[in-house]
């Protein structure tokens, strides 16, 4: 695997090293960053799924309202 260097502040480097020590043991920094990015992607996907589900619930509510109004209109036109 090819490697590269990234520039981060000393504060960020220190936070990364503390996180590694506290949560990932002797994992390589590459593994730590990969896991953190994967966790972030997972959280973002779950948030999108929740938003999509909420949007779908809103669509169901809208459809129910359309059906209610249509039933009232049908009732009125039957007069």
Short note summarizing the structure:
The protein is mostly helical and 79 residues long.
Fraction of residues in helix: over 70%
Cα gyration radius (Å): 26 Å
Please give the largest β-sheet: none
Strand content: under 5%
Description of the molecule:
This protein has helices at residues 10-24, 29-77. It has 79 residues and is mostly helical. The chain starts with 9 loop residues before the first helix and ends with a helix. The model has no long low-confidence stretch (mean pLDDT 89).
How do the helices and strands line up, and which of them pair or pack?
Blueprint: H1 10-24, H2 29-77
Distinctive features:
single chain, mainly alpha, 81% helix, 79 residues
């Amino acid at each position: 695997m090819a490697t590269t260097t990234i520039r981060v502040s000393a504060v960020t480097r220190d936070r990364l090293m503390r996180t590694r020590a506290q949560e990932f043991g002797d994992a390589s920094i590459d593994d730590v960053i990969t896991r953190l990015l994967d966790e972030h992607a997972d959280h973002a996907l779950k948030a999108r799924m929740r938003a999509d589900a909420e949007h779908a619930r809103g669509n169901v509510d809208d459809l129910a309202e359309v059906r209610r109004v249509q039933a009232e209109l049908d009732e009125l036109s039957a007069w």
